[in-house]
Design brief:
heterodimer, A: alpha/beta, 2 domains, 9 helices, globular, B: alpha+beta, 4 strands, 68% helix, elongated, binds magnesium ion
């Protein structure tokens, strides 16, 4: 689904956010990109969403080489992705329903069909009864779930999320992750950036640890795992199931 | 957890007919844009007023000229001119000459005023009757008063004057109505000046609306960014702003018509009184339907142009970061 080949991203100031990164995510996988702040997680997701272009290397998403997607084609390209952001990026001047319907409206889907799909998406994140509310009247966790409903309403094959639980307390984080997990079960590929290692360990998904814009050496990953397994009050399975 | 256990897949949704969906989308966007203007009634009204005044100004000037012209066209008889015949031309010759000139296509009517008639009238009108009785001979010539036909142009009038002036019997052709031509020439200049002014005011409207839309775009920068982030094209994010421009233009145009109408209403009484003093049946000409449509349509086009320029210039630069 995603192939990152020898990708380097250098910013005008000279900072290298990614250095020769190579990785791939299979169709139907749910993968976490981990790493400290500044490791390059957001930069990677931005390249996939074509918010930015790599300095060198190739980013191939669902068989499409993003280098060949012209500026004019970027909107259509983005419409086949679902994106979830740490700060939700909701539109606060309109109710939940309109926020979730936005991708459908952009795609030119009629309001009547949009209505059914919006409700189905809200149902999946458990906000069916909140469609008329305004986002600012919702809790952070609910707002994030609105953002997720918006990301999945057009049924993307790939969903990318940058620190989707960054602002949420552990219980809400777990709730969000369970929603992601259910999408994954119906075939959606997910790539999630997060530094919440404890949470990720509970899910038992593959992790791609980044450090200074490159893959972290495998040894460190084990150390981290060991640390959490040793210190964990309950096993991942306890929390998840 | 509120997540429902029966996670049914999201229905694919049969897309509505592409045209009707497209149409509905436009209707929705335009209504949205209108609602947005209505939510800031004071600011919107100010802008509408500025646009309306700017449109009403040239429209009102145009109406003044149109009315002046219609008054001027009632002065056709003022284009009459007189041919003073040489003093040795007999009354018979003068009568024959009058008949000849009357046959010309560019002449509607010729009236002969004999020297005697002229003298009589002068005597009675001037009050010098008794003094003039002492004259042995009549110093006045026979005179032909010519009314040109309505089809004459400025050029053919000059030709007519020249041709009758060159007749051997003619002594002098007196056109005492040159001011009518001057009047029409002044109207022509004014009309052109208004056209130039209207173009400048049109540019002003484009700038006003463009600037309003630019501020609007800046205020909604986050929204534009987010919308682009989830896959909106430039055309999609531009659309509501184009509709705002359209509403501003349409509203301004209609308000301009109302302003002109009110101006005419305010002038109606004094004009009627003045016309009464002149014993004239003159009534003020208003904007007709096509002129009203032109003003409204111009407002709409200028509104679209202003918002298009602003959107083209500022929208492209707003990209998700
Ligand atoms: N626009 C930018 N200009 C310059 N440097 C940047 C820019 N964006 C990110 N960086 C740098 O790139 C590195 C990776 O950033 P980022 O991908 O945001 O990390 P993460 O999301 O893992 O915290 C950081 O050192 C950051 O300072
Ligand atoms: Mg980040």
């Amino acid at each position: 689904m995603i192939r990152i080949e020898d990708v380097t991203k250098r910013f005008p100031g000279g900072q290298e956010a990614l250095r020769g990164l190579t990785l791939s995510v299979d169709r139907g996988e749910m993968v976490f990109i981990t790493g400290h702040s500044g490791a390059g997680k957001s930069t990677l997701l931005r390249l996939i969403a074509l918010i930015d272009r790599p300095t060198s290397g190739q980013v191939i998403v669902d068989g499409q080489n993003t280098a060949r997607v012209s500026r004019r084609k970027i909107p259509a390209y983005r419409r086949q992705l679902g994106m979830v952001f740490q700060d939700h990026k909701l539109l606060y001047d309109r109710p939940v329903f309109d926020n979730v319907a936005l991708p459908l409206i952009i795609s030119g889907i009629g309001y009547r069909d949009a209505g059914r799909r919006v409700r189905a998406a809200l149902d999946q994140v458990g906000l069916l009864n909140k469609e008329k509310r305004h986002p600012e009247t919702l809790s952070a966790g609910e707002q994030q779930r609105v953002g997720i409903a918006r990301a999945i309403v057009s049924r993307p094959k790939l969903l990318i999320a940058d620190e989707p639980t960054g602002n949420l307390d552990p219980d809400l984080s777990l709730e969000v992750m369970r929603i992601f997990r259910r999408f994954n079960e119906v075939g959606v590929t997910l790539l999630i950036a997060s530094h919440d290692l404890a949470l990720i360990d509970q899910l038992g998904c593959r992790r791609i640890p980044l450090e200074n814009g490159a893959l972290q050496v495998e040894k460190d990953r084990d150390e981290v795992s060991d640390y959490f397994e040793g210190a964990g009050a309950h096993s991942p399975e306890d929390r998840w199931r | 957890m509120a997540v429902s256990k029966t996670s049914e897949p999201i229905p694919a949704g049969r897309p509505a007919g592409p045209v009707s969906a497209w149409f509905l989308c436009h209707v929705n966007t335009s209504v949205d844009a209108l609602g947005r203007l209505a939510r800031q009634p004071f600011a919107s009204l100010m802008i509408l007023l500025v646009i309306a005044v700017t449109l009403a100004l040239p429209a009102a000037m145009y109406l003044v000229i149109k009315n002046a012209q219609s008054i001027g066209s009632n002065w056709e008889n003022a284009l009459d001119f007189s041919i003073y015949l040489k003093s040795d031309v007999t009354l018979e010759d003068a009568t024959r000459l009058a008949g000849l000139i009357r046959q010309r296509a560019d002449v509607a009517q010729v009236t002969l005023i004999s020297a005697q008639d002229a003298l009589d009238e002068f005597k009675s009108a001037s009050g010098f009757g008794a003094a003039l009785d002492h004259l042995k001979t009549n110093p006045l010539p026979h005179t032909l008063v010519v009314r040109p036909s309505g089809a004459n142009t400025e050029q053919s009038m000059i030709l007519l004057h020249e041709e009758v002036g060159n007749l051997p019997e003619a002594d002098l052709v007196q056109v005492d109505t040159e001011w009518v031509q001057r009047f029409h020439a002044i109207l022509d200049i004014l009309r052109r000046a208004i056209a130039i002014g209207a173009v400048l005011l049109g540019v002003a409207i484009v700038v006003i609306i463009g600037n309003t839309i630019r501020l609007d775009i800046q205020n909604r920068r986050d929204e534009i960014e987010v919308t682009k982030l989830i896959g909106a094209s430039n055309a999609f994010v531009r659309r509501p702003f184009l509709y705002s421009g359209l509403w501003y233009g349409l509203g301004g145009g209609l308000l301009a018509l109302a302003l002109v109408r009110y101006g005419l209403y305010a002038l109606e009484q004094p004009v009627r009184r003045l016309a009464g003093l002149y014993n004239s049946a003159f009534s003020v000409l208003e904007l007709n339907l096509s002129e009203s449509l032109l003003i409204t349509g111009t407002g709409v086009l200028l509104g679209l142009a202003g918002s298009w320029l602003a959107a083209a210039r500022h929208m492209r630069r707003i990209e998700p970061r």
